[in-house]
Specification:
By secondary structure, this protein is mainly alpha-helical. Helix content is about 55%, strand content about 5%. The chain has a single domain, classed as dinb family like domain (Four Helix Bundle (Hemerythrin (Met), subunit A)), CATH 1.20.120. A hairpin with a 2-residue loop joins β1 (about 135-140) and β2 (about 140-145).
């Protein structure tokens, strides 16, 4: 599966895609799951509700954001892969983080939820017909292909995983 070319995404999306040098995005997605589970499961539960300056989200909110993002990106990929090019709205990540209720959840439960969502993403992308990878549509006013969404999923976790690594030293 070739990497997405510049016509398959726009602007800020390149920031995430550029974090994924691999050419086999499914292998990268699978390996990333193993890596983040091993690392995130070492974060002490007490760190889950900590917000490290200058950041505005707790560790739980960051992982919750990654869960929400993966679900949204996966939904977009499903719609576009099936040939539904209905424009999809964006989402306000800060509003989602504030209203997610992550503080009431155990950090370990959030990590397990991320695992379930990622495994679902892997099944979605693994089972797509080849032609679906090049399909796309508009999300948040930007054109995006299914292939680019797969790369964005991996790059999004790499981006926020790097922030968590700096914050708690465990990831």
């Amino acid at each position: 599966m070739p990497r997405p070319d510049k016509t398959e995404f726009t602007g800020f999306q390149a920031n995430y895609i550029d974090l994924v040098p691999e050419t086999d995005v499914l292998a990268a997605m699978s390996a990333q799951l193993d890596e983040v589970l091993a690392l995130w499961r070492r974060i002490p539960e007490a760190q889950g509700d900590v917000c490290h300056e200058p950041y505005t989200w707790t560790v739980k909110q960051v992982i919750g954001h990654l869960i929400d993002g993966e679900r949204i990106f996966g939904y977009r990929a499903l719609r576009f892969a099936r040939g539904d090019a209905t424009p999809l709205p964006g989402f306000e990540e800060n509003d989602y983080a504030k209203s997610g209720g992550y503080e009431r959840l155990a950090l370990s439960d959030l990590v397990n939820e991320f695992e379930a969502v990622r495994r679902s993403s892997l099944w979605l992308f693994r089972n797509l017909p080849e032609a679906a990878w090049g399909r796309g549509g508009d999300a948040n006013g930007n054109h995006i292909s299914v292939r680019a969404l797969a790369y964005i999923i991996v790059g999004h976790v790499r981006h926020h995983g790097g922030i968590l690594r700096k914050r708690v030293g465990a990831v």
